[in-house]
Write a structure and sequence with these properties.
Length: 96
């Protein structure tokens, strides 16, 4: 009797998982399609998201504080800057 109950229970639990997956799988597919379909931004919007980077001309020495680099880059006409790389250089950035 216990063996029969276990087989009966395991059969229905696996069947329940299949039924749940039949409902969940299409929802996941629709979500993925919506997520990846928004990737077409067009050339105008892609160009707006590009960032031009250049090394700071006024920053001297190793860059350890991004706040100082950011300030100097703003005085050079950039939107901001940060310390970058192994050699700790101040890199300024602005939209292209």
């Amino acid at each position: 009797m216990c063996v029969l109950f276990y087989l009966h229970h395991s059969y229905f639990s696996s069947l329940r998982k299949i039924v749940i997956m039949k409902h969940v799988f299409p929802i996941i597919i629709v979500f993925m399609l919506l997520l990846f379909s928004t990737g077409d931004l067009g050339t105008e919007k892609v160009a707006a998201w590009r960032t031009c980077k250049a090394r700071s001309h006024r920053f001297r020495g190793l860059c350890f504080r991004s706040r100082k680099c950011n300030y100097i880059c703003k005085t050079e006409g950039f939107h901001g800057g940060h310390c970058h790389g192994f050699r700790k250089r101040c890199i300024c950035h602005k939209p292209c």
